[in-house]
Design brief:
alpha/beta; 7-stranded mixed sheet; 29% helix; 26% strand; globular
Length: 340
Amino acid sequence: MNDAMNDATRTTTAVTTMTAAVHRRFGPPEVVHLERVPVPRPKADELLVRVHASTVSIADHRTRSRDLPKGLWLFVPIALGVFRPRKRVLGMDIAGVVESVGDDVTGFAPGDEVIAMLGGDFGGHAEYARVPQSKAIARKPRNLDMGEAAALVFGGHTALAFLGLVPIGPGTDVLVNGASSAVGTAAVQLAAARGATVTAVCGARNVGLAAELGATRVIDYGAEDFTRTPGSFDVIVDCVGTATFERVEHLLKPGGALLLVIADLSSMSSAKRNSRRSGKLVTFTGGPVTHDDLAGLVRLAEEGRFRPVIDRSYAFDEVVEAHRYVDTGHKTGNVVLRIA
């Protein structure tokens, strides 16, 4: 009898409907609205998480508006949907409490406070989210609230995916272009935490922030063209799409790497050719991020060596306003959506 009750606890929830931020057509922020939808049913290898917070990211903006880098319109029908959105509930990251787990899930149980990266599956802008155990999941940092914890995930996960492609440690020179973005603020901190010397490129209002996050040198792109900066780098991380290989090849040391977090079709199609020709790594694809990788980010946060950067925080019923702000292109770090 007890075993049967335990199995039920692992796999079911009494709630059948939930509130979610849904967009049923592409367009401006106003296409997003709250409505009641069925609670997702987790499979045997999935967790059901009661979502407390998520973020509205550049990925949500692009998916909702179909505002993609130059040349990528060809891939809109495949990635996003032809006439209607394929992913109606946005949100790539979550922080929340495990509601139930499938029979094949190990390492997590109902009641655990967790963070998770949903990635291209989306679904985080809802009261409940289904999370495959194959996704990067970790226990929430004990010293952060749910909103702060959610702000670790999108930028942190992406930065881990790209920085994991190259060796970074003491003596490594790293330049982060777009250092005030969600990914940029994470990349600066992670590179600095590994002992690298970091040069950050950002706008004037975020120069102080970049230095606080661990950058040894900060370049205000409004006052100085970073491509003309003296010196050279082992790694350049481009978080805004302006550090094309043609612009920064001369800044890369022999055997260096250009990590294109954001790239247009031209940069993507020429990446392998430029790598072969130059002997330098040029890539627009990050590597896998495991549970242990995300747990390592949590440890850094608990040690005070990595902090989430939050620009603004919105209540769930302010989701349209959150999208409007992200659409301005001027956010610093993360925009948090408080769901529970």
